[in-house]
Specification:
Elements lengths: L6 E8 L9 E9 L2 E11 L4 E2 L4 E2 L8 H29 L4 H8 L8 H13 L8 H22 L11 H10 L1
Antiparallel strand pairs: 1-2, 2-3, 4-5
């Protein structure tokens, strides 16, 4: 039985910090299972040119540049599509997603490092020490441990690697019981 999650994307105006021109930032709120995060879309609009019910810029006959409205709405639509696709991909990869995961990816933060990323970094760091402060047999045990973890992950999870977020005490206990 899979648990259904609630997911929504909302565009709203941040009216507390208007520019001198009167324009305000359009912010994005991502909500997943009652947890939310928000950030600036880096788009600005005058509050009179905003349709709150649909979360889009609109043409105000008195003041709005039609091209500017179209550009803003295209940008918001593209961001919405990107967020939707990230959510679906993360859900497929991890089975559990929090809004900050999506936000971090959008801002280019490399938060999804895997177990073997850290294993390889550790091995690279210690490879330089072999023969100096680290014996060859000890280093070989490190490599062997990595290979055993790789086999365990393949057997237990059917994957080639796990995100660090997927590892926990249960993972360690299961691995140790396999040894």
């Amino acid at each position: 039985m899979t648990k259904k999650s609630t997911f929504s994307v909302l565009f709203f105006l941040r009216t507390d910090q208007p520019k001198k021109s009167g324009e305000v930032a359009i912010h994005v709120r991502i909500t997943i299972n009652s947890k939310s995060t928000s950030f600036s879309s880096k788009q600005y609009v005058h509050p009179n040119d905003w349709n709150k019910s649909i979360g889009k810029a609109m043409v105000n006959k008195k003041r709005t540049n039609t091209e500017a409205v179209a550009r803003i709405n295209r940008s918001l639509d593209a961001l919405n599509v990107k967020i939707q696709k990230l959510y679906e991909r993360l859900l497929d990869d991890q089975q559990y997603v929090v809004p900050d995961d999506i936000k971090r990816i959008i801002f280019g933060e490399d938060w999804r490092k895997t177990l073997f990323y850290y294993c390889d970094s550790y091995l690279d760091l210690n490879r330089k020490k072999v023969g100096k402060t680290l014996g060859k047999p000890t280093f070989r045990r490190y490599e062997l441990a990595k290979e055993r973890v790789k086999v365990f992950i393949k057997q237990q999870y059917g994957k080639d690697d796990l995100y660090m977020k997927e590892t926990n005490l249960v993972f360690i206990e299961e691995f140790m019981s396999m040894m």
